[in-house]
Amino acid sequence: MGSLRRTEEYGIGMTGLVPARSFCPEGRLFIKREDGNLGGSIKARTAYFILKDLCRRMGDLAGLTLIESTSGNLGIALARLGADLGVRVLCAVDPTVATEKLAMLAEAGGEIRMVHQAGGRDFRAARIAYVKKQAEETNCIWPNQYSNEVGMLAHEATTGPEIWAETNGLVDIVVVSVGTGGTICGIGSFLRSCGRDVLVVGVEPVGSIIFGGEPGPYLSSGAGLDGPSPLLQRHGSVIDLYAKVADDLAIAACREFAAKEPFGIGITGAASALVGRQLARLHPDKLVVAIAADGAENYRTIIDSLHVQPNIVRNAEFRLLPPAWEHGLGGV
Asked: Could you tell me the domains of the chain?
């Protein structure tokens, strides 16, 4: 019977917290670098907890097939870890997923299912609908990262405590890009339990309507949804403020960050870093942590090919608003 080894044996967790002094010389901005995890992203934490939970509930998973909607990172991690369990992993992706991630998915052993828009849905909603249908009509197991409590627990048990320890309990603001909501809800829940008044800020791409607004197209780089996920509906009360960052600003920030710091960050991490920099400038006495879910190499084709104004981020300002959850909380 296959089984999972300890997280440290896979290189999951205990990632670094690095100051972004050149990107943000006016404040105390730190980047939580998640590209050091297995598969190069924060989703290794989620995948490990999901598979560990399935093993606990179902026993031997060998020969079973998992299917999940993914922008790449979770699928990569599920496929890498699933190999130890003898699990087949089907990954529902869409045409906006970075080519680098598709290559990594295939290399990890994930089987790619390309899903196109249908019925007026955005890409991610179309992927979820496809996966739900496959799970209902076949023997595939759908972990459902959008509703699975262990996805939140992964960050409540690991990422949140790491941030607390790495800042010696002095973190004031944490900024997290939001998709499923598992990362921000897990981190926020842990920090709430520490007794310190930490401001939790969510970031979504313009076009995503997790926090409301007008729907529109956006890149499938790990953030965004056509409304709050079930996880967010249950636990989103930990989020104090949110901001929306357009894809072109996030990509320009990827380039600026790489030019000023000795490492690169992915598109969602750059969006969070932009909002984090604004907060650090406004509150130079506060310690601000922005989560970089993965590295720039996962999106090199997109970052290098899309034309954006080089100075577009210089004076960019983002409205920070409290969530006005149109669908309410606690009902799913």
From this structure: 7-37+149-305 (3.40.50.1100), 43-137 (3.40.50.1100)
